[in-house]
Amino acid sequence: MASSSKRPRSGASGGSGPSGPSGASGASGASGLSGAPVPDEAVPHVRVAVIGSGFGGLGAAVRLRRAGITDFVVLERADSVGGTWRDNSYPGCACDVPSHLYSFSFAPNPEWPRSFSGQPDIRAYLEKVATVFGLRPHLRFNAEVLEARWESEETRWRLTTSAGQWTADAVVSAAGPLADPQIPDLPGLSGFPGKVFHSSRWDHEFDLAGKRVAVVGTGASAAQIIPSIQPEVGKLTVFQRTPAWVLPRRDREISQLEKWLHGRLPVTAKIRRGTLFALRELQVDAFVRRPGLLRVIQQLAERHIAQGIPDPALRAKLTPDYRIGCKRILLSNTYYPALAAANAEVVSSGLRELRGSTLVAADGSEHEVDAIVFGTGFHVTDMPIGARVFGADGTSLAEVWKGGMEALRGSTVRGFPNLFFVIGPNTGLGNSSMILMIESQLNYMIDALTTLASVGATAMQPTARAQRQWNLELQHRMDRTVWTTGGCRSWYLDPSGKNTVLWPGSTTAFRRATRKVDLGEYELIMRTAPTAAPTTARTVQEASA
Ligand SMILES: Cc1cc2nc3c(=O)[nH]c(=O)nc-3n(C[C@H](O)[C@H](O)[C@H](O)COP(=O)(O)OP(=O)(O)OC[C@H]3O[C@@H](n4cnc5c(N)ncnc54)[C@H](O)[C@@H]3O)c2cc1C
Fold first, then answer.
1. pLDDT digits over 239-296, tens only?
2. The whole model's pTM is what?
3. What is the per-residue pLDDT across 4-48, written as a single tens digit (0 to 9) for each?
4. Residue 66 is part of a domain; what is its CATH number?
5. 115, 273, 396, 434: which to mutate for ligand 1, most atoms within 8 A of CB?
6. Best CA proximity match to 471, nearest among 426, 510, 419, 420
7. How many whole angstroms from 423 Cα to the centroid of ligand 1?
8. Residue 87 domain-assigned?
9. Which residues contact 114 (CB under 8 A, 6 or more apart)?
10. Which residue range forms the structural domain that includes residue 72?
11. Is residue 293 included in any domain, yes or no?
């Protein structure tokens, strides 16, 4: 991809220094950190700026390098890599998709200790990926992207971060689907005298032993936290708005022999991964087209509840009234025994307000506690990065998406040239590994960048027609899914009830849909002159007219 920039380039240079970020504004008027005017030439330019260093951002970095693109930075607001697996350090945190599938296909790990490995091991894996694949020189920590703005005249992005500015030909947003915690705005919360934290911001300094602890929420994180803390707390009060369906968790240690085999004979690890993949792929039809088939699985869950909860009153509280699969299915062998323990109480009603240290449920019951753990999820359908990204006409992505998030193939959005999402709208999964979707989107992003270079264009954006058509078809398929018909309200749905989170198909179908960029779905933009002038950026169609 040609660039007319004569400014310093800040790719695999490491740290700041001469090729580090500029701390102030450039000629286009974007504001910097210090407020002091800094010439545009001092703002480092890269071919690609990646936002985030979780699985998505690190995967993007590996794929960029493999495609021969080394002129890029990874901007990360925290001080280390890992994303989800850095931030979620709560007791019991582990993946709920088997590790041999929940890892990069290009970085198999024969050393996974368990079938569902814990957070420390997954975090260590990502640290190792960053080192082994030579990503460290590209990482910029404590660089929170505050604003990314497309500059049409220059056909580039300008990123303002907490560590200064960069400009970039393209931006890869891997800011995470579940990265910004959501705590409900409850009356009286600010006056609560005890300890309060979100599951993804665990306070390891606070000792829960013997305390009266409330867990608010009964989703995937809460289901791992509850059994982990129940034995040590004095009293556990769980606020449950809607019960989850829970299936047994077939977790076990990976034997030395298996590890040895996977290390010495990588084909055995491939077979294992392939089997795990196929088993999940076979389930997709039931979730997406024939939810009736899920009845068999629901019976397993009913048996699990009957075995774990002898008390019929508690069992009634914990039995969902919607079809299994409508909300995320939880996997646990210890959740029900923890809730049935003598020191645990399930309040089958949401938390309504706080009066001092008294928590008042929607049913009016009152509960005195010393600490509150919010397992209340994340900002998902209101993707926070959207409010910080401004497109060709100066409008924010959040504004464009106020009627619901939409992209072409989950990756690109009209009006936001050269912006590529990793885990964009409708790329989430209900039953398999997100890494499969991430790798598909990385294929698409790399193909887009190499296609741009090969056709001599500077930027691309989807046509309105292609984006509309993609979403019409996708939402049409969504109508039959268990997430729509199952009779629940889940975090997959936005306030209008539209599912803008999940992919209504198999991961294989998504892989096919993102293998190659179809130029018929895009408008190409060419930079025709090196200097800024309103008429220099033209679409290819205009240029050839
Ligand atoms: C507790 C938990 C368990 C999970 N278990 C599974 C599982 O078993 N299987 C599965 O498939 N999925 C699971 N997920 C989903 C998981 O989020 C994805 O699988 C995957 O880790 C997402 O990777 P990511 O890189 O897209 O996002 P993240 O891992 O969230 O990384 C995003 C990164 O972007 C950074 N960032 C965000 N905004 C900015 C900004 N403005 N500027 C700079 N940096 C920014 C964040 O600090 C973070 O490091 C789980 C999620 C959670 C929370």
1. 999 999 999 999 999 999 999 999 999 999 999 999 999 999 999 999 999 999 999 9
2. 0.92
3. 334 455 554 433 333 455 543 333 333 344 445 556 788 999 999
4. 3.50.50.60
5. 434
6. 426
7. 9
8. yes
9. 94, 99, 121, 251, 252, 253, 254
10. 39-180+380-543
11. no
